[in-house]
Structure to design on (144 residues):
């Protein structure tokens, strides 16, 4: 600034750009890219989780930490999880709970009932089941 003042005193005129001639903007004022003082952002799209596929089978086994059930789907996927049963629970209780879970989830997600048919175990403490869709009872609802 002293150099500019020195030039002006010698009779030379210096033209400053407009941004330097105007007072600085008020820092508390909202920026033109903001609405109501907030930042403008793109609306985030929620990622849709894939729904539970149509079940095709159940693999049930007991491990040293508890009962584990894997639900195979028609689309080729698999959903695995533990059953809320102790290690020394009766195998029939574990089969009943696994069948109840796959039936409840299928009814909630897909809107139809399934039937679970357990096969003879090929190995001790490992069971396999087929899951089939139950035919709808009665006539289908009429659309108006």
């Amino acid at each position: 600034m002293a150099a500019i003042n020195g030039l002006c005193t010698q009779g030379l005129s210096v033209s400053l750009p407009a941004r330097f001639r105007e007072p600085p903007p008020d820092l508390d004022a909202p920026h033109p890219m903001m609405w109501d003082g907030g930042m403008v952002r793109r609306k985030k799209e929620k990622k849709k989780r894939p729904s539970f596929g149509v079940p095709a089978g159940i693999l049930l086994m007991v491990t040293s930490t508890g009962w584990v059930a894997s639900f195979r789907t028609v689309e080729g996927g698999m959903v695995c999880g533990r059953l809320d049963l102790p290690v020394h629970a009766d195998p029939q209780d574990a089969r009943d709970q696994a069948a109840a879970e796959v039936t409840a989830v299928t009814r909630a997600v897909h809107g139809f009932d399934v039937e679970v048919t357990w096969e003879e175990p090929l190995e001790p403490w490992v069971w396999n089941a087929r899951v089939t869709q139950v035919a709808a009872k009665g006539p289908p609802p009429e659309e108006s």
In short: The longest helix spans residues 91-110. Confidence is low (pLDDT under 50) at residues 4-9. Residues 55-133 form one domain.
